[in-house]
Amino acid sequence: RFTKEIFRDYQIYLNRINLYRQRIWTCKVSGKGNLTYEEALVSEKHATKKVPEIPKELMAMALCTIQFSMLSLKDLADKIAAKLQETLFIGAVLHGNRKKSGLCPCKILKVLEEGTVKTKYEVAWLDRNKKVIETAIVNRNDLIWKKSPFSRNSLKPFIRKSTYRSFPWVLHDKLAEKYQISRDPPQDLEGKVFIQDGIVYNKRKKDAMDVEESGKLKKKKVEGEEAEATGKNNQQKEEPIKYPIDDLLVQPGTDDPVFKARPLPSRDFKVPMDCVGDLLMVWDFCSSYCKLLHLLPFSLEDFENAICHKGSNVTLIVETHSSLLRLLKHDKDEYFSAVQKRTRALKITLTNWTEYLCDFIEIINIGDFSTNITTIKRGHYGILDAQVKLGILRELVNQVLGTDIVREKLAEYVEERQVLFATKRGEALEEGRKKREKEQLKAKSVSNGVMNGHSADIIGNNQHLYANGNHIGQNGQVAKKKGEVFSARPNNPSKRSESSHSIIKSKETGKKKNMNAESQAENAMDVTKKEALILLRDEKNTAAKRSSKEQRREYFEREIEKRILHTNPLGKDRDYNRYWWFKRDGRMFVESSDSKQWGYYCCKEEIDLLMGSLNPKGERERALQKQVERFYSRICMELQKRSKDLANRIALEEAVQRRSTRVRALPRENPANAFLNYVNKWKED
């Protein structure tokens, strides 16, 4: 706010602000130090008011005394004060020796004779109220200063303000030129000062600075030799740059891809270039809030053609103005009260809409538009310049945006968007929770399957070993009783039968144990198969739900876009050009950094070239690239649709031109005049 500087980098702005807040600044006029930049400016402003106004007759003498003086500030101020006290000037108030009354206050009216001692002055004697009593002619010796007109402290700010350097004191070039004071150093200062690029320098300070710089250079040279002697490992390595950075700081690198040449945007607008911004703003507002305005949407081309059309009462223009004026009228504000005082008709129609428009222009009271009221009242609105038409519509939109109806609608949109965002966020959290549960269940089932298989193997092996042990034991028992059995076979048949029964029972128990182990293993396998089937079914369900999730996401995006608050640009490139995309038109518009130039891209190839020309190492172009990639499919689809419509329109125009003059079509049948066929089907009754 003090320096009027404009920054393109936020970090540079912060560094400059911190510099201005440091207490390193000095007031130029008063000499006060240890101030911030803001305090120094305020001090200079107040000190300048206290600088004495030296009469023009004495200004040249005071400045000559200052120029190339080697005195200190104190001694120089005393010297100037003494000289000014010796010299009298017209208008000076001092005391004179009056013959009758002694010393009396007087004011010098005229200098009669020039000289040092013999000069005479015509003075006016003053009373206590400083009123003129009489006039007289006195000598210089009869006039005395009771108080010096200029003190040392009052002359110090004057000296600082008049010079740009001290020791020697040198006046500003403009001030020296104004009072015709020489800017060449005198002979007694030869060898002490010199002039370089029109600025006076002190030779001693310059020599000291040269010595200091040479010392620094020698020191750097010695340090460089020591570093080379120590080795190359001590050399400081450059830190790699962390991208993205500011686009203007990005330098071409070896790892950069081959960037494509950025295409030049088309600029074939029908309205003047400085009106394109207003054209887009008004059209976007009418398209975004068409339901609130009860205005059937129309294309940007039709709106542009209607604005440039010189005919009167074009339906599209009439309905646009009427819908905006109708909303202002319903708001019951200043416009409503003004309309009531003029007893206008209740409804805005094709015949009286210009009366309401003239009332609005008179209320806003803008000079550029007020001069066109008589033209509008005569029914010649169509002959107005496109700049005036769009300016009136711009002011209408600005007034409508301030109405309570629009503000309530915007507040409603904000609440609905918040609900949609909250619902979307809740569904995303729920989906994430279910996904985590499925992953945990899957990990658990995998671990259970491994454990069940391992336990089944252990059970089977143990059972096999147990069965073999029984056989071995039985064989051992048979071997032990072998002699007894064979020896007692003919004599003891009962014992033989008992032993055979025991052998049969042991075999049966072994078979049962084997069957139990096999059944357990089969049950474990059945459990793992069931879990695997459940997982497969879940995967099928997720695949089926995937399309529904996409549909749900598209639904949220569609509903949020319906409740649009305002249109934001896609981003900026390295030169701060803004890129706009309106989904109802399809083209991508380019706005220059100063908003004076506009253009547009109207085909997929131009969008691809633009994407290939963006450097992701820059902050602005990386953000722009992400936004274009996000809407790329929709932009291409709208552009293809637009190109097809354009091809059909050209074909129709050629068909109309091929007709003979006897069956020539009416102007409304020409596709170029499609805006003349506009009918507002949403018009409020």
UniProtKB/TrEMBL annotation:
Q: Does the keyword Nucleus apply?
A: yes
Key words of the record: Nucleus
Enumerate the spans annotated as DDT domain.
Answer: 273-334
State the residue spans of region: Disordered: 487-524
Tagged with keyword Magnesium: no
Q: Where is the composition biased (Basic and acidic residues)?
A: 495-511
Q: Where is the WAC domain?
A: 1-100
State the protein's name: DDT domain-containing protein
